[in-house]
């Protein structure tokens, strides 16, 4: 049982996960890697195609290899996306200026059909500006073609992490912390809230969502009916199920015993959660280094979206036999792909459904 201060969690129903029965554990067969991807942080499947888009972040002291990768899941070959840049913005803030794509450092990804019918990729950028960058996805050629189409600049001091689409071209984005917070690392170790959730609409701009505060808000998803947000509390080692404005009921927060990073949906409608098993200080020390691989143990678990109970362990990387520093677990056909914040490849596991 893991203890957690609840004095700052007024209004939340806080639950603790009991140790999982070993009979529920489900070991996956490791089958290989997608090579030639540097720091593959988040991943999304382009709907109804064999293509996966992967974001990539910077490694301190080393040249940046790219900002987005396109991966053919049939061949397993990864290549830089090499997006074109539109001269003016047509998505997000119309006053947004194009940015040299080499100045991008990508994190969370999401994909949707925009109101104009275009397939749109949204990417959190933490390079020379803190922003959500938009890319139109053209599927009329042999491989998807990306074209930058606009951005949203984050409010002052906000450090974004994950993004999810809402209706009418609106979106929500997790803010992990504010960049002028000099007590950030100590607060993480003490499980003090540092971040929150923002919603953005064309009519009203950014709005902070009540009761969304967590110690480093990380991954983000919304239920298919739009009634609940699912937010990864990295520092509190928990998942928060928070009603949206169209939802009802109390917030539910469950401790999962690891630092949850990105979230994705399984084909069964469950949450797939990637999380790290090390202290915040040791992980951030490696992030600040020039290492090609951070030796951080992890787990990938499947979580019930109604109760937030852990259903099974998909990949147990606690002993790091094949991979380390996982940030995303993504269902790709009959496989589970695992990416990492500091690594040189993506791990592939056979998914037994």
What's the arrangement of secondary structure elements?
Layout: E1 12-16, E2 29-34, E3 40-45, E4 51-56, E5 68-72, E6 77-80, E7 84-85, E8 91-92, E9 106-113, E10 119-126, E11 130-138, E12 145-153, E13 158-165, E14 171-178, H1 184-189, E15 196-201, E16 205-208, E17 217-222, E18 228-233, E19 238-243, E20 251-255, E21 259-265, E22 271-276, H2 280-287, E23 298-303, E24 310-317, E25 326-332, E26 335-340, E27 346-350
Parallel strand pairs: 1-20, 7-12, 8-12
Antiparallel strand pairs: 2-27, 3-4, 4-5, 5-6, 9-10, 10-11, 11-12, 13-14, 14-15, 15-16, 17-18, 18-19, 19-20, 21-22, 22-23, 23-24, 25-26, 26-27
What does this structure look like?
The protein starts with 11 loop residues before the first strand and ends with a strand. Strands 7, 8, 9, 10, 11 and 12 form a 6-stranded mixed beta sheet that branches. The protein has helices at residues 184-189, 280-287; strands at 12-16, 29-34, 40-45, 51-56, 68-72, 77-80, 84-85, 91-92, 106-113, 119-126, 130-138, 145-153, 158-165, 171-178, 196-201, 205-208, 217-222, 228-233, 238-243, 251-255, 259-265, 271-276, 298-303, 310-317, 326-332, 335-340, 346-350. A hairpin with a 4-residue loop joins strand 18 and strand 19 (238-243). It has 2 helices and 27 strands. Residues 1-25 have low confidence and may be disordered. The protein is mainly beta. The chain is globular and about 50 Å long.
């Amino acid at each position: 049982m893991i203890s957690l201060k609840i004095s700052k969690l007024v209004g939340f129903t806080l639950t603790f996960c009991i140790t999982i029965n070993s009979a529920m554990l489900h070991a996956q067969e490791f089958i290989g890697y997608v090579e030639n991807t540097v720091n593959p942080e988040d991943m999304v499947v382009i709907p109804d195609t064999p293509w996966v888009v992967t974001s990539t972040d910077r490694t301190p002291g080393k040249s940046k290899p790219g900002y987005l990768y396109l991966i053919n899941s049939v061949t397993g070959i990864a290549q830089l996306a090499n997006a074109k840049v539109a001269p003016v913005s047509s998505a997000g803030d119309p006053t947004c200026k194009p940015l040299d794509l080499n100045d991008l450092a990508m994190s969370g990804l999401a994909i949707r059909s925009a109101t104009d019918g275009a397939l749109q990729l949204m990417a959190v950028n933490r390079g020379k500006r803190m922003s959500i960058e938009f890319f139109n996805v053209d599927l009329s050629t042999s491989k998807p073609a990306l074209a930058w189409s606009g951005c949203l600049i984050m409010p002052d001091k906000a450090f974004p992490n994950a993004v999810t689409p809402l209706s009418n071209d609106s979106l929500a984005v997790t803010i992990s912390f504010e960049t002028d917070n000099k007590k950030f690392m100590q607060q993480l170790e003490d499980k003090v809230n540092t971040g929150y959730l923002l919603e953005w609409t064309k009519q009203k701009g950014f709005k902070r969502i009540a009761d969304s505060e967590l110690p480093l808000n990380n991954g983000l998803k919304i239920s298919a009916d739009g009634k609940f947000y699912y937010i990864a509390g990295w520092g509190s080692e928990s998942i928060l199920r928070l009603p949206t404005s169209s939802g009802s009921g109390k917030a539910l927060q469950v401790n999962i015993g690891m630092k949850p990073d990105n979230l994705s949906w399984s084909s069964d409608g469950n949450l797939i959660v990637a999380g790290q098993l090390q202290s915040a200080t040791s992980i951030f020390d490696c992030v600040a280094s020039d290492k090609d691989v951070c030796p951080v143990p992890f787990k990938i678990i499947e979580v019930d979206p109604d109760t937030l109970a852990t259903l099974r362990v998909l990949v147990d990387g606690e002993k790091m036999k094949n991979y380390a520093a996982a940030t995303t677990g993504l269902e790709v056909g009959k496989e589970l792909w695992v990416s990492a914040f500091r690594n040189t490849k993506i791990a592939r596991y056979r998914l037994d459904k």
